Amino acid sequence: MTRTMLLALMATGLLLPELALAQGYDDLDESEAAEDDAPDRRRDREVREVVKGAYAKSNVGGASYLLAFRGWVRNGTAVGLTVGMDFLDRETMSVAGELTFNQGIHNGVDYLTQSDYGCQLAGGAAPCVEGDLRTYTVQGALEASIYPTRRIGLGGRVGAGVLRSPLLMDELAYQTQVLSEWNLPADPGFHGRFKPLALVGVTGEYYSKLSHFSVGADVDLFYAFGFDLGLNWTGYFKYTF
Description:
By secondary structure, this protein is of the alpha+beta class. The chain has 3 helices and 8 strands, in the order H-E-E-E-H-E-E-H-E-E-E.
């Protein structure tokens, strides 16, 4: 019995290193596979942190007119609401289409002061304009961005739309008093009519670690035909669904 137990123990001792070695190889293979897969899993997690697709954003900032109205209309405030969609999403670039409603609010020189300085019906540095301005713009834009880093996008925009600047005073008073004070034969036509516009701009965006939220800035140069050349510079908060 004793001899049999000794032989069994010796046999077990000889087999244990082989079993341990075999187990070690299996564990090593599994750990190497896990290490090989780890970068892919990390990359997947990083990509999922930046969400693309349908989005909404809110812009707030400043606005100015650069040519005809510059003499009478001061820098003002621009606010906007946008809905859009990323329809091309690559690792280093993206393309989106968006629809925006903008509102501009400006204080200006009153019509009597304009009359004193001799505003003009057309041309010149300062044509006759109501003074205080409120503009409403609906525009569509195509935006393309590149990504020098995973969370930062830099891009450009082109678009078109329509602008309307309603008359902010009683229309009868405008027709009978203001135009008479300006000594104009006809209404300059800046107010109450839709003006087509074209725009170009640049944009920058930072994707926060809250995957659906990002912040950025838009700078748009636009020309409203029959109105003026304008510039909007705004910051925005964006949520991607």
